[in-house]
Amino acid sequence: MASQTQPRSGTRVPLSRERVLRAAVTLADEGGIESVTMRRLAEELGAEAMSLYYHVANKDDLLDGIADAVAREINEAVSRTEVPAGAANWKTAMRRRILAARQVLLRHPWAPGLFETRSTTSPAIIKHFDALVGLMRDGGFSYDLAHHALHALGSRALGFSQELFDPGDGTGPGGATAPAPADMASQFPHLAAMLTEVAHDDPASTVGWCDDQTEFEFGLDLILNGLDSMRHTP
């Protein structure tokens, strides 16, 4: 989403909710979602901060709108994806749609964290999940199995993996303080040995600490292959 500041000609572009949200997404892309404030957004748009409240009721409404804008971008990307027809191709169709959604999140790596904080679900996200259920139904899934499948996919259906914890942030599960590196090997030898072999060589493919493209596709394929085997179970 390109920044929509005032054009160089000096012509004033009227504010609208869509323009405010697109500018907010640009700010988040540049400095993270924490950098999006009403004051900073007004500066980006060349407007008074109070004028923004004609288009977004408050900060929560702004964040809901940003989440919806990204979700609509996901639907636009997914709609351009070529998916094969036929029950036997459901898995390929699902995989392509989900990976298309992930490409959007790679452009907005702050978005997964924003999705997780929203108390309401964007209609655009619901539309995305409805389309996935439609693909599974075309593939021979019962609604019950499709329901189980959505739970198994979890956030992967939107293109990202929810990590249990990030050892780089100094905390462990539940907010516990992680041990110092020197103590890691003695206290948790198997995890320490595993982490010494973990390497993420392409930062551009990473949404979170261990949510790089290779790990994401590994988990996605594991789930889709398992679901495909259940699809044939009487």
Task: Give an overview in words.
There is one protein chain. The chain is mostly helical and 234 residues long. It has a domain at 81-167 and 178-234: Orthogonal Bundle (Tetracycline Repressor, domain 2), CATH 1.10.357. Helix content is 56%, strand content 0%. It contains 10 helices and no strands. α4 packs antiparallel against α10 and α6 packs across α7 (143-153). The radius of gyration is 21 Å and the shape is flat. The chain starts with 16 loop residues before the first helix and ends with a helix.
Low-confidence stretches: 1-5, 170-176
| Average pLDDT rating | 86
Strand content: under 5%
Terminal-residue CA separation? 46 Å
CATH superfamily heading of the domain at 81-167 and 178-234:
Tetracycline Repressor, domain 2
Structural class by sheet pairing and helices: mainly alpha
Tell me roughly what share of residues is in helical segments.
55-70%
CATH architecture of the domain at 81-167 and 178-234: Orthogonal Bundle
Question: What is the number of E strands?
Answer: 0
- The total of helices stands at 10
Order of helices and strands: HHHHHHHHHH
CATH class identity of the domain at 81-167 and 178-234: Mainly Alpha
> What integer value in Å does the Rg equal?
21 Å
Quick one: overall form?
flat
- CATH topology category name of the domain at 81-167 and 178-234: Tetracycline Repressor, domain 2
